[in-house]
Amino acid sequence: MNPLELAPAAVKEKAREIYGEVRFGISPEEIDAVAASWRAQGGAVGRIDLSALSAATGSGSDVVAALHSAHTSAIPTLESIATRLETLGNYMQRFNGSAAASDAAAAASMEQLQGR
Fold it and tell me: Which letter does DSSP use for residue 4 in this model?
C-alpha cells in the first residue's frame, strides 16, 4: 500500500494544487524491489567461484603465487560482501513492514481529526 493512499483527501488535494503531482516518498513496492535485488546480488556474490585461482600451476612463478594468494584473501571478502548484501536486503524488508504499519497508524490518527 502506498502511504499516500492513507492521507486524507484534503491533504492530497492541497498537495496537487501546490506541486501538480502527489508523490509521497518511495512506494512499498519499490522498497520490496530494492530489498529483493540486494538479497539476489548477495547470493550472486556468494556463488562466485574462485577455485581456478588456487588450481593454477607453474614452477616458481610469482604469478602463480599471486593467484593462490588472491584466492585465499578473496574468499572471506566475497563471503563478507555476500552476507552484508543479504542482511541489508532483510533489514530493508523488515523496515518496509514497520514503515507501512507506522504510516497506517499515523494516517488513521489523521483521519480522526475533525474538519474545519
Answer: G
